[in-house]
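Bench notes, bay 3.
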Amino acid sequence: MDRLIHATCFRRLQGKTQLYPGFESDFFRNRLTHSLEVASVARSIASKLNSREKFLANMPINLDIVEFAGLAHDLGHPPFGHQGEYELDSLMRQHGGYEGNAQTLRLLTKIEKKGFVDVDDSQFNGNGDQRKGLNLTARVLASILKYDNIIDEKRLTDEDAVKQGKKIKPVKGYYHFDDGLVKKIKSDCGGNELDSKFKTIECQIMDVADDISYSTYDLEDGLKAGFYTLQDIVFPKQKLLKEISEQIQLELPNGDIFKPSPEAVGEILQNLFSEFLFQDFQGTHIKDLDSAFSYLNRQYSIINSYSHNGYQRNFLSSSLVNRFIEGVKFIPNKKFPAQSRVVLTDDILGQVEVLKKFTYISQVLSSRLKVAEFRGREIVREIFKTVSADGGCELLPHDFRNYYESVNADKKRIVCDFVAGMTDRYAIEFYARLKSENAETIFKPL
């Protein structure tokens, strides 16, 4: 835990976008505050399971590993959120791709400056790369392996994808050159069932906590930012309901597929928030025009309070988080205890998924954020292409330049590591040094 907290990549999370660009306001969450919340929710889930499940009595879930997973799960995110991720993946598709979870593993096992391997170990790159990152145990590293899937070394370029009418997104998994490392992690953690994906109990708890945090705390930020009101959530437009319905196709713990109709999405949202919207109206009877206006006035006050009253927003988010944590279900695995399952019950999972999609469509896909995302992608693309060009390595900071010139690894991967590690502000400043007529002073270190 201490190694992570003192690591450079952890500090940089404070300068990386969660939903809104960091320069907008210090109030809104960034990747660091989001990670702290995920770690807190994950620890609460693990504590609850330890106290409730008899199966865990003699081998309780390690709270420190669970908390580590929550703190570390977003380390690999580049500047400018998922749009930065999409752009780097587009640039790296013929060189192993780019994906946030894969980059997290690379950061923890290679890039972070803590130690080196003593000998040439085949689990690390066979090209002279002797870095060992934070030198963590296999069980700790397993806690951030969300996707048991190898990312192909070469995939479709944007041009080929357009020709074939395909839309390409980053592939969730780990880089092909980390396959040996992942196999060793699996082996050291007790192996894996052949018919299932490898995912330790700590990683599953982190994943559930991430979904809970994303669906509630990002929703709270959206209320504060004015993207919607509580009434917009409970009575959304039909187009929004349809978009949410189309984006959800989720396999439930029992193997069924959860794909709600637009009408079912609307019912889930209404059931989730009705107690907050109508909490003061039990037994209310509208008898005349005065009582009707009184009712509407009180209704408007409640709706307004969730956007402008911090107490009400905190009450809303904490109530939802508590409800979702209560919906956590434990499924023991006697043969592979480390891979016992932690999931949400079907009804809670449906609620969380609908809220996630509502937040994503209402905010991330809005035109206000699209402008910022377009600019972010351009900045990432221009920095990458400039540094990747002939002689571009001379623009790198000394440590990256020395590494770039001393190894036989794919040079683009090193450039990718450099760009991915940037905060939003540092990327903007670096871009300004390259392109702006009002560049930063040369005496400010890179």
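Next record in the batch:
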Amino acid sequence: MSNYLFLAAAIVAEVIATSALKGSDSFTRFWPAVLTVVGYLLSFYLLSLTLRTIPIGIAYAIWSGTGIVLISVIAFLLYGQKLDGAALAGMGLIIAGVAVINLFSKSAGH
């Protein structure tokens, strides 16, 4: 499996875990709490696999930036979180930053 596929899977696992964290109601609901713990463990394991070839700063920037945007979209869709213009602009800048790293950075370890 490509290291970027490991990174994508790590992002998905982290987004699922964070979404379940909200649903766990401060770890008072068993199954969402279990999903949170398993999701974070899987996410960090997969992230560690990407560090074999992708520099840690690049991998973490992509992992965290993409996760922020995806969680914000999920929070909007599932939990009714409001996203104002500044939030949308900030997320646009995060997406642009991840794109610049992937398309133009020689540090990205392609």
